[in-house]
Amino acid sequence: MRVGLFFGSFNPIHMGHLIVAQAVREMTDLDEVWFVVSPQNPFKKNKTLLHEFDRLDMVKAAIEDNYNFRASDIEFNMPRPSYTIDTLVYLKEKHPQHHFKLLIGEDNLVSFHKWKNYKSILSDYGLIVYPRPHNGRIEQVFDNVLQVDAPKIDISATLIRKLIKEGKSPKYLLPEKVLDLVKSRKYYI
């Protein structure tokens, strides 16, 4: 099986994540997209980060009706901060029958050379790169990279959290089931 790994904090998962994942799956030979919920991004501070199990619950709620999507908590029991290459190696050991590709936003190509063991990620797994809103296209400077023409989605989890904190509705930015969880559990207020 060919699996695209979509890493993120998903704080919260929103329609932009789902649109990109669906478009990438449809435009490539991927059988599934796994949403890998990251406990802690080594490049981000986590002061507004919900607990990992709460974010996992939101991902599960968001994707429960799509049999091509799967939520993964693989990094929850790994050393922190978690690095992508370590997770990829662990997943390959655990699922040797699968072929994994890493999904990243085009904006991440600029700093990709700073990722731990980035050359191994490229040679052993490869990248599927989706466009991000910015000024112009980033030239591909690596091998084993497929750039897809998925929709450019400019939805920000930061904006969603801000709306909720201000008592405003993020309706249509979040899947309905995620919005229900946010309201019932009083996330981000």
Continuous helix count: 6
Structural class: alpha/beta
Q: What is the average per-residue confidence, as pLDDT, rounded to a whole number?
A: 92
Number of domains: 1
Could you tell me the number of beta strands? Answer: 6
**CATH structural fold name:** Rossmann fold
Q: Report the span from N to C terminus.
A: 41 Å
Spans of at least 5 consecutive residues whose pLDDT stays below 50 are: none
Rg for CA atoms: 16 Å
Top CATH class: Alpha Beta
Order of helices and strands: EHEHEHEHEEHH
In the CATH hierarchy, what is the superfamily? HUPs
Main β sheet profile: 6 strands, parallel
Strand order across the biggest sheet?
3-2-1-4-5-6
Overall helicity: 25-40%
Instruction: Tell me what the CATH architecture is.
Output: 3-Layer(aba) Sandwich
Beta fraction of the residues? 15-25%
**Oligomerization category of the chains in this entry:** single chain
- The best one-word shape is globular
Kindly describe this structure.
There is one protein chain. By secondary structure, the chain is of the alpha/beta class. The longest helix has 13 residues, at 15-27. The chain has a six-stranded parallel β-sheet, with helices on both faces. Helices cover 33% and strands 16% of the residues. The protein has one domain: Rossmann fold (3-Layer(aba) Sandwich). β2 (32-37), α2 and β3 (69-72) form a beta-alpha-beta unit.
